[in-house]
Inverse folding.
């Protein structure tokens, strides 16, 4: 079985069949040439909750291109060369954009991690990635020193501290043990007489210099390592190639209709990088990108208004928060986002209620586009809000969540549920229309491997000999309908196979099951788990149990009466018949970023501890 190894992903001799001409930065170069003084990036900064304290830092395309050139030169002078790996832990800022494009230009591989994944997972990610360099804000460097991140592999350090002077600068250097980005930039400056940029970034004080000779890579050559959040399992490093980035840019242009000159409210760092590559300005609001649920809606509304954003990228939790804020304005009038012509929601399925509420702020006909995918393969499918609203009844009746049709160039197949590895694709693996199984995808934006995770790669990838590429097993369950739409039925690991007498009796799927119980007015959300109970003769059996989180805004019936009503609902649908156990949980454990992915594994442990026999 073919594998993508480090030896194939370094700076070695290009493959004969693929020219070495790929680099996502070519799009930035084109924009800098054709629309040099158009806005590329704007970063909102604020203190407290007052709108009066908001300030904005900006870069146009020519400045972003030149500053990333300057940083690329400085990185090389600091000892970083093509093929090296560099952890990048920098908050969304002008430096974040300039640094990321500089790394791509130099052929240095950025390693991107989600700080919200937890200290233990972060350390494991750094062990696996074995980075050569660590580029981060002071807080990240202090954590690196205290917790031993990258110990044994990191040889180059850069502190992105906003270039403080005097005592603050000295203290920053002492605490981080790393030279600042501004320092290494100044040390590589060739002239001090050129015109200086007015933007307030670490590269702003560096004189202009020659254009950086951008690294030209194979389309399948490793461009970045993006670690999954770990919200549905152990974080894994996904190997991204420039070919994958190119495919994502093409999809955003063709399938989502994003054009030059647009302005995007970018609430997710990775997506914000696509803005300049699309000739679209990325407007970064003042918020913690790892905890979007904590964002101040008024700040986001202010950024949209100031820059007349035409596009918004949000996850379901932020979609819900902004929608509610739009209803609760001081003037008591519904807030309107008149400039917005497209909203993209991704990360987890958004609820129909959240979409309907948010849509009240939009002009008639403006869609909320729900995207399905994962770090390993994004985007895969898409459905607009007007069509999604027509699927409500099917979803409430246990038919799963419709996530739309495959985007151009993507193929979606459904295979039988199995934990076994599948070395090679065969068309006989396909299930029929309407049959629930594991979702398998292929396309130019689908990753080919995990970094230094051979076992995980083998489990998730199926080699397609005919197409000479890997198909990716999403780990999600679903089915295709007769019109080619994909319906999600939950994670494969979250299904419950009930047993009696040691024999399998029925399979329950998380999303169809939970959506049925969520129709009860007192239920905020529910979660399907499996518990072990003693069966006849003392044998261990698996039974389904539903954990319930109540809607605290409503007065609930007594739990015994609620359980009786839920049992009555269960018997009305084939998907839920046989479910007789329910437990009320005060507050479901969910992922930090999306506030939507329920940690069912934790709930299962809790439910087991509450169950007797």
């Amino acid at each position: 079985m073919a594998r993508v190894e480090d030896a194939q992903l370094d700076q070695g001799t290009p493959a004969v069949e693929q020219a070495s001409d790929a680099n996502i930065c070519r799009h930035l170069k084109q924009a800098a040439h054709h629309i040099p003084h158009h806005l590329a990036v704007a970063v909102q900064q604020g203190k407290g909750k007052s709108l009066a304290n908001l300030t904005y830092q900006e870069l146009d395309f020519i400045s972003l291109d030149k500053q990333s050139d300057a940083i690329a030169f400085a990185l090389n002078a600091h000892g970083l060369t093509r093929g090296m790996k560099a952890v990048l832990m920098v908050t969304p800022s002008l430096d974040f954009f300039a640094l990321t494009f500089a790394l791509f230009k130099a052929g240095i591989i950025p390693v991107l991690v989600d700080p919200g994944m937890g200290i233990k997972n972060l350390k494991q990610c750094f062990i696996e990635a074995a980075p050569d360099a660590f580029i981060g804000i002071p807080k990240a460097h202090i954590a690196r020193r205290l917790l031993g991140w990258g110990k044994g592999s990191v040889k180059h350090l850069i502190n992105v501290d906003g270039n403080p002077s005097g005592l603050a600068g000295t203290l920053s250097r002492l605490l981080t043990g790393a030279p600042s980005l501004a320092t290494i930039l100044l040390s590589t400056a060739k002239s001090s007489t050129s015109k200086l940029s007015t933007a307030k970034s670490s590269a702003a004080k560096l004189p202009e210099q020659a254009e950086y000779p951008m690294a030209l890579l194979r389309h399948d050559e490793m461009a970045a390592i993006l670690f999954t959040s770990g919200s549905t399992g152990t974080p894994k490093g996904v190997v991204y190639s420039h070919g994958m980035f190119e495919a994502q840019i093409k999809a955003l242009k063709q399938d989502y209709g994003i054009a030059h000159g647009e302005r995007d409210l970018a609430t997710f760092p990775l997506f914000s990088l696509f803005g300049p590559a699309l000739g679209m300005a990325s407007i970064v609001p003042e918020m913690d990108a790892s905890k979007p649920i904590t964002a101040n809606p008024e700040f986001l509304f202010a950024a949209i208004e100031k820059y007349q954003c035409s596009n918004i990228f949000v996850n379901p939790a932020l979609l819900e928060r902004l929608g509610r804020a739009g209803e609760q304005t001081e003037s008591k009038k519904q807030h309107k986002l008149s400039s917005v012509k497209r909203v993209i929601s991704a990360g987890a399925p958004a609820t129909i209620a959240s979409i309907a509420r948010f849509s009240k702020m939009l002009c008639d006909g403006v869609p909320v586009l729900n995207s399905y995918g994962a770090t390993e393969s994004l985007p895969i499918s898409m459905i607009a809000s007007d069509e999604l609203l027509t699927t409500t009844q099917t979803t409430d009746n246990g038919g799963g969540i419709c996530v739309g049709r495959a985007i151009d160039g993507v193929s979606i197949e459904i295979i039988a549920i199995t934990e076994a590895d599948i070395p090679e694709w065969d068309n006989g693996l396909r299930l029929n229309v309407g049959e629930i199984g594991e979702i398998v995808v292929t396309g130019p934006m689908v990753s080919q491997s995990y970094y230094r995770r051979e076992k995980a790669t083998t489990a998730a990838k199926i080699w397609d000999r005919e197409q000479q590429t890997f198909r990716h097993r999403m780990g999600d369950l679903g089915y295709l309908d007769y019109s080619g739409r994909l319906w999600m039925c939950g994670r494969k690991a979250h299904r419950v196979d009930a047993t009696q007498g040691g024999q399998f009796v029925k399979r329950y799927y998380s999303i169809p099951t939970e959506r049925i119980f969520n129709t009860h007015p007192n239920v905020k959300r529910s979660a399907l788990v499996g518990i072990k109970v003693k069966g006849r003769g003392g044998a261990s059996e698996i039974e389904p149990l539903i954990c319930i989180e109540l809607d605290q805004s409503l007065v609930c019936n007594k739990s015994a009466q609620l359980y009786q009503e839920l049992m009555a609902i269960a018997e009305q649908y084939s998907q839920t018949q046989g479910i007789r156990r329910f437990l009320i949980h005060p507050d479901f454990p969910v992922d930090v970023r999306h506030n939507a992915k329920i940690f069912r594994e934790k709930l299962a442990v809790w439910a087991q501890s509450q169950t007797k026999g």
Notes: The first helix runs from residue 6 to 9. The CA atoms of residues 377 and 446 lie 4 Å apart. The domain at 495-610 is CATH 3.30.300.30 (GMP Synthetase; Chain A, domain 3).
